[in-house]
């Protein structure tokens, strides 16, 4: 497993797909420093029986 964090970039109630970024967040005065090539889109799977969610960043 690799350490990382989830980027929440939604504005004005627009639905967006979440992204995962490796490493620990580095704060700047504008928000977080993010390398665009390093971030990965999050894919979610839901169990129809119990509702369990699993998230992956392929």
Description:
- The chain has 58 residues and is mainly beta.
- It has one domain (4-56).
- It is built from no helices and seven strands.
- The protein has a three-stranded antiparallel sheet, with no helix packed on it.
- Strand 3 (26-28) and strand 4 form a beta hairpin.
- The protein starts with a strand and ends with a strand.
- The model has no long low-confidence stretch (mean pLDDT 90).
What are its keywords?
single chain
- What is the ordering of alpha helices and beta strands? EEEEEEE
- Enumerate the strands of the largest sheet in spatial order, edge to edge or round the barrel: 1-2-5
Overall outline: globular
Estimated structural class: mainly beta
Query: What's the structural domain tally?
Result: 1
Helix tally? 0
Mean pLDDT: 90
- Please count the beta strands (DSSP E, at least 2 residues each): 7
The gyration radius over C-alpha positions equals 13 Å
Short description:
The chain has 58 residues and is mainly β.
Produce the secondary structure layout.
Blueprint: E1 4-7, E2 19-22, E3 26-28, E4 31-33, E5 40-41, E6 43-46, E7 53-56
Antiparallel strand pairs: 1-2, 2-5, 3-4, 6-7
């Amino acid at each position: 497993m690799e350490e990382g964090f989830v980027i929440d970039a939604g504005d004005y109630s627009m639905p967006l797909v979440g992204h995962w970024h490796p490493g620990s967040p580095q704060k700047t005065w504008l928000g977080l420093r993010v390398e665009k090539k390093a971030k990965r889109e999050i894919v979610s799977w839901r169990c129809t029986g119990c509702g369990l969610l699993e998230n992956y960043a392929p």
